[in-house]
């Protein structure tokens, strides 16, 4: 049994060495492993039997090297490599790498599962020293993200404080998925007290904890679509639907995902958005530069007519025998002379 464990450890060490450098000679590997060249050849065959494409080249400059395979093999990391990888994944999960947020968090949860306790403190200290500038996602505590990610993975209840009606109330949820938008992190979860699905902004949570009570997963909505619809429309006083005479691909490139949901409708598309003021919806639709038709609500069509009359009046010729035009010209000249125009 001890001999088998020794062989396994040696083969894993050999795999780690092959991942560190492009080419190793047989004598070099034998020296590093403390075995004979014949044992190295046997261990190489063991790796090949496990699916690792270890290539052997003869002659000057030849040796053993790990080639590309069909699947990504497990990577063996030393302490420094594990810390650097975890910190880089934290940066990606925080939005530093465009398009990599969800993948970074999934990889981080896998690494977190096997990361030794002695390394967690170093990862936390290093991640606290990394900042970003400019726009981007609202910052959240990496520990909170990890707690929620672990709860989603382990299918255990989570609890946290969340503002509602001017007060912070305790929520009990069955966490399902973490969703990253272009601005924030959200948790899609089943709210046990409200008996329905809800999305929560992670940056608004306080006292986040994962509990030991396991739950049986429910039939869940599409996480990304549910959160996007909530962010773009459900949280606002008014919800609007417009048919736009342009393709979904073109319109999606013009509208942030957090501002509207774009559904393809043949060669055109339907835009679903929300606002507390319907005039803002119309302003953004006009600025897209495409013909569009208001589908819902009826009062939005009424606002179209009111604003159309207002715009027509604003573009009408100046009347009153040209007096209005002369006053306009005088004011314009005054602004130029003052250095404002």
From TrEMBL:
Domain spans labelled HTH deoR-type: 7-62
Gene3D superfamilies assigned to the protein according to its UniProt record, in alphabetical order: Winged helix-like DNA-binding domain superfamily/Winged helix DNA-binding domain
Keyword Cell cycle: no
Coiled coil: none
Keywords noted in UniProt: DNA-binding, Transcription, Transcription regulation
Keyword Cell wall biogenesis/degradation recorded: no
InterPro entries xref list: CBASS_pafABC_assoc_protein, DeoR_HTH, HTH_11, PafC-like, Tscrpt_reg_HTH_DeoR_CS, WCX_dom, WH-like_DNA-bd_sf, WH_DNA-bd_sf
GO molecular function list: DNA binding; DNA-binding transcription factor activity
Protein name, per record: DeoR family transcriptional regulator
């Amino acid at each position: 049994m001890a001999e088998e464990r020794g062989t396994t450890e040696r083969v894993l060490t050999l795999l780690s060495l092959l991942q560190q450098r492009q080419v190793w000679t047989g004598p070099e590997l034998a020296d590093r492993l403390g075995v004979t060249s014949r044992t190295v050849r046997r261990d190489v065959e063991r790796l090949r039997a496990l699916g690792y494409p270890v290539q052997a080249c003869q002659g000057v400059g030849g040796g053993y090297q790990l080639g590309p395979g069909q699947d990504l093999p497990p990577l063996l990391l030393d302490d420094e490599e594990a810390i650097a990888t975890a910190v880089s994944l934290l940066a990606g999960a925080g939005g530093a790498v465009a398009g990599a947020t969800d993948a970074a968090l999934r990889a981080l949860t896998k690494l977190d599962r096997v990361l030794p306790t002695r390394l967690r403190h170093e990862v936390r200290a290093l991640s606290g020293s990394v900042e970003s500038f400019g726009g981007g996602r609202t910052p959240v505590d990496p520990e909170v993200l990890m707690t929620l990610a672990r709860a989603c993975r382990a299918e255990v209840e989570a609890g946290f404080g969340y503002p509602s009606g001017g007060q912070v109330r305790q929520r009990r949820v069955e966490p399902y998925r973490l969703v990253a938008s272009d601005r924030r992190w959200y948790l899609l979860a089943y709210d046990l007290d409200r008996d329905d699905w809800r999305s929560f902004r992670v940056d608004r949570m306080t006292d986040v904890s994962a509990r030991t009570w396991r739950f049986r997963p429910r039939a869940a909505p599409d996480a990304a679509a549910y959160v996007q619809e909530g962010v773009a429309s459900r949280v606002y006083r008014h919800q609007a639907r417009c048919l736009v005479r342009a393709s979904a691909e073109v319109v999606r490139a013009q509208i942030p995902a957090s501002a509207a949901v774009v559904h393809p409708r043949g060669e055109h598309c339907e835009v679903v958005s929300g606002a507390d003021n319907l005039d803002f919806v119309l302003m953004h639709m006009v600025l897209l530069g495409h013909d569009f038709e208001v589908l819902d609500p009826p009062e939005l069509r009424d606002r179209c007519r009111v604003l159309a009359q207002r715009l027509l009046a604003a573009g009408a010729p100046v009347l009153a025998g040209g007096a209005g035009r002369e006053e306009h010209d005088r004011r314009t000249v005054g602004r130029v002379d003052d250095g404002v125009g």
